[in-house]
Amino acid sequence: MNAFEIIGGKKLKGEIIPQGAKNEALQILSAVLLTEEKITISNIPDIKDVNKLIELLGDLGVTVERLNKDTYTFEAKNINLDFFQSDVFKAKGGGLRGSIMIVGPLLARFGKAAIPKPGGDKIGRRRLDTHFLGFEKLGAKFIYDQKKEFFNVDATNLQGTYILLDEASVTGTANIVMAAVLAKGTTTIYNAACEPYLQQLCKMLNRMGAKISGIGSNLLTIEGVTKLGGTEHRMLPDMIEIGSFIGLAAMTESEITIKDVQYDELGVIPEVFKKLGIKLERRGDDIYIPSQKHYVIDTFIDGSILTIADSPWPGFTPDLLSIVLVVASQARGSVLIHQKMFESRLFFVDKLIDMGAQIILCDPHRATVNGIDKKYQLRGISMTSPDIRAGVSLLIAALSAEGKSTIYNIEQIERGYQDIDTRLRALGAQIKRIDGAGPSH
């Protein structure tokens, strides 16, 4: 187990460039399987979950060429469908939640696919029913091997249809869109997710020759085509990193400029941080956060306590709620954090309480944060990262805390954040990576 050792309480300063969007990458990379022509993708984040998917594509027979640090070409001309039944695929596919995303394009192009029961974050039940029900509506048949925990899928005759999704799942919508673009006839998806990542996927598919309308809304119409071609695509910057860096600046009283953020694609994210009292300025396509000693949480107009809750886009993304919670702990005022979508994402608050934060965990979905207004610093402790987003929240807390903190299980953080320690050191953070470390308890 590896760890980060952090000496906190230091003001940071400088510019930081967000990586490409992890959640977009898993969809866009899977889409290369829809054509045998070459696709060039840039601004790919160099992180474990994405690299695992690129490796999996290579194992499937995709010709992968790395042009530079963040740009690759993919050519899915000779796909080995027998690879699905191999133990290698079982091991690799089962260890990566993103592997579910290759099912839609493979069903569309080859009429069959297989997938082991996926793994991923420990943040509560994350059902895959939306994906499978959508595929079934299009005509796919599933055979689940309970003993091997493996799904085999037959989709030799996909037909366009009307689909009302049971939840506005981003990955579910993306997977069904990729299956539908080559199905016969017209598919209508209602209650579709409309996140910028999904809009990016739909625009890319249209450049490849797909016929998708309603992009950016929750009603997508897809006219099936017989073939798709190659294209070039550049990924958006990662909005979760951007939000994390806003929170980091506030907690550490740092003056930070976040570069090239594609501001218009950030939705309500800047406004939510402003509700916590954080000053931030848009400068062209950059966000400038000045150093500020105090920030005061808004109340509702009638004076009642502010609630920040996650909801499907264009609502506030659940991936930033843990960041908001940490940042609120040092604000002046109180806020109720309501995590609606995942039931165990708030279970890291015990570590923040150990550091001196005043947080009441009401139930698995809600926490009340009483901001201590920086009257005293959080104190450094040893802790273990339970998942990607909680890990970065704890990292931000440690950078603002007095003394030394050690965060174990940083593999979770590194699944989603590229070279995070190197980039933070460039801002003046005192952080080092310790390989092979283990908690004493």
Automatic annotation (TrEMBL):
<dbReference type="Pfam" id="PF00275">
    <property type="entry name" value="EPSP_synthase"/>
</dbReference>
<keyword id="KW-0132">Cell division</keyword>
<dbReference type="InterPro" id="IPR050068">
    <property type="entry name" value="MurA_subfamily"/>
</dbReference>
<comment type="function">
    <text>Cell wall formation. Adds enolpyruvyl to UDP-N-acetylglucosamine.</text>
</comment>
<dbReference type="GO" id="GO:0008760">
    <property type="term" value="F:UDP-N-acetylglucosamine 1-carboxyvinyltransferase activity"/>
</dbReference>
<keyword id="KW-0573">Peptidoglycan synthesis</keyword>
<keyword id="KW-0131">Cell cycle</keyword>
<feature type="binding site">
    <location>
        <position position="97"/>
    </location>
    <ligand>
        <name>UDP-N-acetyl-alpha-D-glucosamine</name>
    </ligand>
</feature>
<dbReference type="InterPro" id="IPR001986">
    <property type="entry name" value="Enolpyruvate_Tfrase_dom"/>
</dbReference>
<keyword id="KW-0961">Cell wall biogenesis/degradation</keyword>
<dbReference type="InterPro" id="IPR005750">
    <property type="entry name" value="UDP_GlcNAc_COvinyl_MurA"/>
</dbReference>
<feature type="active site" description="Proton donor">
    <location>
        <position position="121"/>
    </location>
</feature>
<dbReference type="InterPro" id="IPR013792">
    <property type="entry name" value="RNA3'P_cycl/enolpyr_Trfase_a/b"/>
</dbReference>
<keyword id="KW-0808">Transferase</keyword>
<feature type="domain" description="Enolpyruvate transferase">
    <location>
        <begin position="8"/>
        <end position="421"/>
    </location>
</feature>
<feature type="binding site">
    <location>
        <begin position="22"/>
        <end position="23"/>
    </location>
    <ligand>
        <name>phosphoenolpyruvate</name>
    </ligand>
</feature>
<keyword id="KW-0133">Cell shape</keyword>
<comment type="similarity">
    <text>Belongs to the EPSP synthase family. MurA subfamily.</text>
</comment>
<keyword id="KW-0963">Cytoplasm</keyword>
<feature type="binding site">
    <location>
        <position position="341"/>
    </location>
    <ligand>
        <name>UDP-N-acetyl-alpha-D-glucosamine</name>
    </ligand>
</feature>
<feature type="binding site">
    <location>
        <position position="319"/>
    </location>
    <ligand>
        <name>UDP-N-acetyl-alpha-D-glucosamine</name>
    </ligand>
</feature>
<comment type="pathway">
    <text>Cell wall biogenesis; peptidoglycan biosynthesis.</text>
</comment>
<protein>
    <recommendedName>
        <fullName>UDP-N-acetylglucosamine 1-carboxyvinyltransferase</fullName>
        <ecNumber>2.5.1.7</ecNumber>
    </recommendedName>
</protein>
<dbReference type="InterPro" id="IPR036968">
    <property type="entry name" value="Enolpyruvate_Tfrase_sf"/>
</dbReference>
